[in-house]
Amino acid sequence: MSETLLEVKNLTKYFSTPKGLLHAVDGVSFTIEKGKTLGVVGESGCGKSTTGRAILRLQEPTSGEVYFEGKDILKMKRREMHKMRREMQIIFQDPYSSLDPRKTVNQLIREPIVNNKLLKDKLDIEKRVLELMSTVGLAERLYNTYPHELDGGRRQRIGIARALAVNPKFIVCDEPVSALDVSIQAQVLNLLKELQRDLGLTYMFITHNLSVIYYFADDIAVMYLGRLVEKAPAEELFAHPVHPYTQALLSAIPNPDIDAPRNRLLLKGEISSPINPPPQCRFAKRCNYCCEKCLAAEPELKEISPNHFVACHFPLE
Amino acid sequence: MGEVQEKRSEYAMEIRDLAIRYVTDEATVYAVNHIDLKLRPQGTLGLVGETGAGKTTTVLSILNLIQTPPGVIDSGEIFVNGRNVREMTPAQLSEMRGKEVSMIFQDPMTSLNPVMTVGDQIAESILLHENVDKKTAYEMAKKTLETVGIPGERAGEYPHQFSGGMKQRVVIAIALACHPNVLIADEPTTALDVTIQAQVLDLMRKLKESYHTSTILITHDLGVVAEICDEVAVMYAGSIVEIGSLREVFKNTKHPYTEGLFNSLPDMSDRNSQLKPIKGLTPDPTKIYEGCTFAERCPYASEECTKRRPQLEAVGENHKVACLAYEREGFSIERSRKQ
Amino acid sequence: MLFKKSKKIDDGRSIYVKKSRMQEIWHQFQKNKGAVVGLVMLIIIIGIAIVSGFVFDYKEDICARHAATRLIRPCLEHPFGTDQMGRSVLARVLYGTRYSLLIGIVVVGVSTGIGTMLGSIAGYYGGKVETVIMRIVEIFMMIPNILLGIIFVAAFGISLTNLMLALGLSTVPHFARTARSSVMTVRGNEYVEAAKAMGVSDFKIIFTHVLPNALSAILVQATTRVASAIISAATFSFIGLGVPSPTPEWGAMLSDARQNMRDYPHLVIFPGLAIMVTVLAINLVGDGLRDALDPKLKR
């Protein structure tokens, strides 16, 4: 019925550090359907950003396969990959450091067009830049301003326009609203949703903000220490989280509704080191339900109900 | 004692008519525009607002930490335990800082000294304010560490040996070491992960009960306010636009800006609800507004709103709002119609 | 806001002229009074260097010996006096500006070019490439300037070109280090990664995104190095390893005057002052530039 746009199999990215191998992303597999959004949530250091960057080969993965429309992009040569970059783009978290401070709005948006030789004629390029600016809601008068003269929300719009300039099919959104104020956050989220609807974009939406992901994503993948621990459609995941970590994570969201019932599951301790992790459940040390089997073997990701995957020896009910 | 008694206000901390601006070569930034703020003993006041609303400037003035220049304090009096901070001598000020009022900063990574053990850093504050010798101070530091959930034997370790959440606990321990009456926490959990944030908020709630401190919590996260505060002040462009008890402000919201903040948050009970962001941009702090600062972004604004500055008016018991729309007969915002 | 409306293009869309970065830098620069004074001095010095080439005849006014006018103290006819060969010190000091500036510019040009290239490659790629380049650079840094100069002159002979080459090479490590560290900071920014995601080649990324943003540190380094190159050149000439004798290089003039400096101090005062004033002017400008280019000092 629906078509798979991106399939990731066993994606792994290790970094070698003086203390040993850092397992940033460890055997992560998932698929994203065309026109849908996969939300990836997790706390700092869980490997969610590295996953996004490894898929785009901004950081070369250690091993694994990434199929984009059926082709394994990790096996591609430079030239093929260069073409591929037009299909897959990224929007960064920090609208302050992701824009070259020495370039004007016009130059920033123009760069991908000129660089990929999408348009040749100067007037065509200018028209396209203005068109992109209006798509993302940037006023024409900002054509020649520098990013430092603009606020965070507008800068993020430049980042979005730049990503859209090459007509991509797939965009990795790496915490696109985390650095923005609440009221501006909502504007950018609405813009991203509109663009998805109008241009048929597929998103991988990386964030640590659970309420944003609930609103935005069709499917949600929860990561912990480089591992994918649970993946399910958004409503299913929020209604029936079965991994102890997911449960704790969901219960920790500060809820602005003061009359909502609060049954907080407090986790003990903090995230353990991703360097040379022992062959046991990575969450075992903080898990309130940890038992012998959890320390003996690492659980595999298995489907417990249609489209609901979990990596836990004793998924909760 | 006698002369102090006269001025003593019943509040742990009180700000009257505070106005601060920053003057630079290019422009003057009006950071805080004539605000009044009261902190009840043992109360927790949430100061909510977006970047540039003047929250941090307001609380820095309580410790008299505004840099002048570029800062200019145009008016205002600040009372801590009944004494006017602006009339204190430098010696009195440093006596007050840490002992009566202490502050937790947003980023635990930069607010600890990397070359001192955490035990020494806590003991330093105790030595300054309590009449004890070094050894006792260190023992007291160990005890304080234990109250924030860190084993006392880790006092000899350096900040880099602690994780982010642990560092924030150390920062809290330093702030609480001398049992201050007033604790100012500037976005204490913003740099932390959700599960760690939950731990720290839980800790702060428990400490509030055992230490009887009054707390001012700066945040932009309405969820955090709902967790821990009992009173809320909403700031916009250097002014307080709505202030009152948690229940009044959250459940009986009156100001269009506060409503806008709530509407910008995804509704956790209804996934398909639309986000209704506040239109427009955060205001230019260098501009002097004749009328309401929020008027240009406000969906209910009328002609009148751009001409006259609204003042805080009582709209209920322990609830004030600064909005001219309520002068119109039968006016209510959408949110209150739903509730 | 910060832009001006200037012209309308054919279909009625308006195009806005950007407030250029140069204007911004100038705005910051001219706030620093010392820097402005330095700049004025520098412009005058450059003017002297250019004009003196037309006014004086090198053979006749600068090098020719005039037995009749030997060692005259400063007077109306010879404002700076004359030297042991009977040549006008004023003419020689003015003409010497050409050499000092030439040396400063060539030395810094050579070392900036080579140093920045090496440093950016090291900083951008990191890893083994960086280790190899930086170790070589450090080895060069360990050799004292004077020693390097002596080796160079011993191998290739005394001449202006060799002096400039020796000084240029010995300055390369400074630029390589500056370039490397500023490129490394810039490289960490997400816009470099963003460019990669758009498929921009490494070479282009270095030239369009990394170097322009790393340039301010290099530029400031370059200005101050011009001053130290002038001093080094004078030092070399003074000990006889620099510019050979009849050339009116300031250091060489000091060297020539050694015999008579007790009785005729004007022989050393004027070239010495010339060095001092030039170096001062350049350093003032360099300081001003550093402050104007540092975004942290804005506001």
Topology, element by element:
The complex is a heterotrimer of chains A (317), B (339) and C (299).
Chain A: E1 4-17, E2 20-33, E3 37-41, H1 48-55, E4 63-68, E5 71-72, H2 78-84, E6 88-91, H3 105-115, H4 122-135, H5 152-164, E7 170-174, H6 182-199, E8 202-207, H7 210-216, E9 219-224, E10 227-233, H8 234-239, H9 244-251, H10 292-296, E11 302-305, E12 308-310
Parallel strand pairs in A: 3-8, 3-9, 6-7, 7-8
Antiparallel strand pairs in A: 1-2, 1-4, 4-5, 9-10, 10-12, 11-12
Chain B: H1 2-7, E1 13-23, E2 28-39, E3 44-48, H2 55-62, E4 71-80, E5 83-84, H3 90-96, E6 101-104, H4 118-129, H5 134-147, H6 164-176, E7 182-186, H7 194-211, E8 214-219, H8 222-228, E9 231-236, E10 239-245, H9 246-251, H10 256-264, E11 313-316, E12 319-321, H11 334-338
Parallel strand pairs in B: 3-8, 3-9, 6-7, 7-8
Antiparallel strand pairs in B: 1-2, 1-4, 4-5, 9-10, 10-12, 11-12
Chain C: E1 4-8, E2 14-17, H1 21-29, H2 33-55, H3 58-63, H4 89-125, H5 127-142, H6 145-156, H7 160-187, H8 190-197, H9 202-238, H10 250-256, H11 266-293
Antiparallel strand pairs in C: 1-2
Helix pairs in contact in C: 1-11, 2-4, 2-11, 4-5, 4-7, 4-9, 4-11, 5-7, 6-7, 7-9, 8-9, 9-10, 9-11, 10-11
User: How many angstroms separate the termini of chain B?
Assistant: 50 Å
- What is the alpha-carbon Rg of chain C in Å? 24 Å
Helix-strand makeup class of chain C: mainly alpha
Oligomer: heterotrimer
**Overall 3D geometry of chain C?**
elongated
Name of the CATH first level of chain C: Mainly Alpha
Please write the string of helix (H) and strand (E) elements of chain B. HEEEHEEHEHHHEHEHEEHHEEH
Which consecutive residue ranges of chain C, at least 5 long each, have pLDDT under 50? 1-18
Query: What is the fourth-level CATH superfamily of chain C?
Result: MetI-like
Low-confidence stretches of chain B: 1-7
Distance between the termini of chain C: 17 Å
Overall helicity of chain B: 25-40%
Total number of distinct structural domains of chain C: 1
